[in-house]
Amino acid sequence: MLKREHKVSNISSEAIFAIPAMKPSKVVYAVIFCLCLMISDIRFDTSYYLRSVSHEILKPISWAVQFPFYVVDTSVIFFSSRHSLDERLQTLEEENFKLKSANQLMRKLSIDFEKLNSLWDSSILDKERFIVSKKNLLSSNEFQPLLVLDVERGHSIAINDVVISELGLVGRINNFSLTTSEVLLINDIRSSIPVVSEISSLHATLKGSGLRSNGKLMYVKKTAQFSLGEKVFTSGLGEVFPPGIPIGEISNIEDPSDSEFLKVEISFFQTPINQDFFLIYSHE
User: 212 or 13: whose pLDDT is higher?
Assistant: First the structure.
């Protein structure tokens, strides 16, 4: 009987189908192949590279999907009546008024930042080393959120380059390709940042607790004199983040009886959820 032939019952004349068992050699080859993939990922971070390449491959598909919607929206605007255009103009004027109000608030915040202590005054960031980048993707993973930014060709970025917004620190570059970069957010549970407080000048380590959760200062002795509302900044220790970048403010202080450390929570100034543009600060 051939390899793929089926026996026929002499009683019922019905075909008796049987699935041939997998050869042991195929099982061995499959196990070896899986082990090679695991070792390659551990040694060379292959998964990071493949994920970056997938962003490159899927980007043209995303553009192709969005193009019909762009054509439809453009056609609707082109053929809309004068009345509809007047209503749209009024809406844009209202949005412009809101933006002007927000700018006034930002000016007030900038004045407040100028009055901070010498640590903030001594920090020097070269404006020529800033790169404007647009958000490409923000994953829905609560505890390890992934922010992907678009980077124009010709810009030089590196691992650990700092990512900030107009409100403060966002994170650092964790991986990059030709046109995209992945950001390890300060909200990520894997994030660890040396910080210093504004008033008491106390040093601590800030850990992320999730995308919609406050950060936590680790191993703060109960003798530390932190204050509610006190702002915290990057301290520059570890030489990853430049000193003086605003991060957040102390929103909660608890003194648990079953621990020798204080529980100090930090409310971040910024969130990448409602942000579209970011600045990448390139190291020298």
Answer: 212
Q: Return the residue matching tokens 């942000």.
A: 275
Same domain membership, residue 130 and residue 76: no
Contacts 24+ apart (CB under 8 A), 236-241: 236/123, 236/194, 237/194, 237/203, 238/194, 240/160, 240/162, 240/172, 241/162, 241/169, 241/172, 241/193, 241/194
231 and 158 both lie in a single domain: yes
Instruction: Return contacts of 9-17, CB within 8 angstroms, 24+ apart.
Output: none
Task: Find out whether 280 and 149 touch, Cβ atoms under 8 Å.
Answer: yes
Domain, as residue range, for 187:
126-284
What rounded mean pLDDT belongs to the chain? 80
How many domains, the chain?
Answer: 2
The verdict on residue 138 lying in a domain is: yes
β-strand pairing of 130-138 with 146-150:
antiparallel
Looking at the domain assignment, is residue 262 inside a domain?
A: yes
Judged by DSSP in three states, 165 sits in coil
Note the pLDDT tens digit of each residue in 43-79: 777 777 777 777 777 778 878 888 888 888 777 777 7
Which residue among 80, 110, 137 closes a domain? 80
Does a structural domain hold residue 121? no
Q: Which of 118, 102, 98, 119 is nearest to 110 (CA)?
A: 102
Q: Which amino acid, residue 67?
A: F
- Report phi then psi at 216, rounded to 5: -130, 135
Q: Which residue has the higher pLDDT, 123 or 64?
A: 64
Evaluate whether residue 109 is within a structural domain.
Answer: no
